[in-house]
């Protein structure tokens, strides 16, 4: 395994995550090849200086790569891994940036022996998508979870770590199942919470359209994630169903407690609960992130 | 009723809302008197140029007022109205900026005949509070709901409207009950949604503290409202219980549908639902607010 500066990196998928990663890696490795399905995507990536060169041909794009990063939605990653692995040089690092890790880890575990798989998940989503939204600064100071397999060599993990640090992110190593359980709470739940909020507003709008006039910054921020890319989110939900359902249950339990206290007008208990949650919320982001 | 430029305005309560309102009104009326419980609050308001003069004495502060704006939490408004009304000149405009309007309207309806009551609710909350957070630009381009009573004279409504427009806000006239029903969905629900999210994170943290490491911008924005002032929110919830409970039920219904589709792995239905919600969310804020 070569040091990053001498490595040829291929990025498969040049959307928000892949395009941003490619752009951030350029100049920090030997070269960055972008692989996309559409030539227009490659042209935009090239004109914005995100890649050294681009191709729509997976074979040509991956032949010389020392590291490959697959940056497409989770189930597209699952479909691509088997197709990509046979095309890679011995010891090539095969990373992904998928938002759930357990299913990907299971599939990585049975890839041909000559590749070095390494799960990855950068925590820097946005509701915008596509190469036109790509921004080489996207990963700066963000957390980038790595989920190495038992078969991942320390050299491959080291190259993966160097790649993460080169784009300005911080590495956190997690077990794939633990990652998925944590992210169900930290990311997949907030998405569903936001969607249900928009759905409730929509129902109200059916009887009183003024609801959208009075929806201000509070509603806007709380519902922001409902604008997330649906294909990406559906892949996440479908590959993490068990953990998502468990955290939805826990969440509904919280709402039930609050509804009960409001119904009973139990002010003292409600005040204690809300005050503790306020302290907790303030404590999480003492330092703005 | 005098035109605003000749009116003496008293603002009772110099927190985020009152301090900002006072500061925005200064120079657009004859003078702005701030009334607060603590002299330190008055000193800060004065040093920041938010008021022309300040007093802790309600009687002295209100004696010459042509318009009074009560800017404290809802139940403090309910306690103050009866105390303030007898101190006012004939035809004095008595406004409030409380976040729920039905209970306040009921109490305004039975105030002494010589005052001109007018409910108000500016939609520009923040999670920060206190005079140190006051900002005369707070109301700029925001919606300011007015809930006139049948007893409110058109001259009083006109002065209230002038006051709202002087601070840079747009007037929307609503019936108090309708206001409360709409705001239950648009504002009180998002708060509870955010609180329940923090509560779910806290439960998870009890078994895995790494949850706060992986909580990124999605969790942060969706949970932002949980940092709101508890006294203010408790007053809102307690004076709008029926509408809040109804919207919580509707919200839980939305979550139940989503949980069911995830449990059944009914991808087609889930995709349709999430795609429709995404379009709805994007449509609400075609123009950033």
What keyword list fits this structure?
homodimer, eight-stranded mixed beta sheet, 8 strands, 12 helices, elongated, 289 residues, 51% helix, alpha/beta
Which helices and strands occur, and which strands form pairs?
The structure is a homodimer of 289-residue chains.
Chain A: E1 8-12, H1 16-25, E2 31-35, H2 39-47, E3 53-55, H3 58-62, E4 67-70, H4 74-84, E5 93-96, H5 102-109, E6 116-122, E7 143-148, H6 154-166, E8 170-173, H7 176-207, H8 211-214, H9 217-222, H10 230-238, H11 241-263, H12 267-284
Parallel strand pairs in A: 1-2, 1-4, 2-3, 4-5, 5-6, 7-8
Antiparallel strand pairs in A: 6-7
Helix pairs in contact in A: 4-5, 7-11
Explain briefly what this protein structure is.
The structure is a homodimer of 289-residue chains. Chain A has helices spanning 16-25, 39-47, 58-62, 74-84, 102-109, 154-166, 176-207, 211-214, 217-222, 230-238, 241-263, 267-284; strands spanning 8-12, 31-35, 53-55, 67-70, 93-96, 116-122, 143-148, 170-173.
N/C terminus separation of chain A? 34 Å
Q: What radius of gyration of chain A results from the CA coordinates?
A: 21 Å
Question: Which secondary-structure class do the elements of chain A indicate?
Answer: alpha/beta
Major β-sheet profile of chain A = 8 strands, mixed
Beta-strand residue fraction of chain A: 5-15%
Largest interface: A-B, 88 and 88 residues
How does this structure look, described?
- The structure is a homodimer of 289-residue chains.
- Chain A is an alpha/beta fold.
- Chain A has 12 helices and 8 strands.
- An 8-stranded mixed beta sheet of chain A has the order 3-2-1-4-5-6-7-8, sandwiched between helices.
- In chain A, strand 7, helix 6 (154-166) and strand 8 form a beta-alpha-beta unit.
- In chain A, helix 7 (176-207) crosses helix 11.
- Chain A is elongated, with a radius of gyration of 21 Å.
- The relative contact order of chain A is 0.11.
- At the A-B interface, helix 7, helix 8, helix 9, helix 10 and helix 11 of A face helix 7, helix 8, helix 9, helix 10 and helix 11 of B.
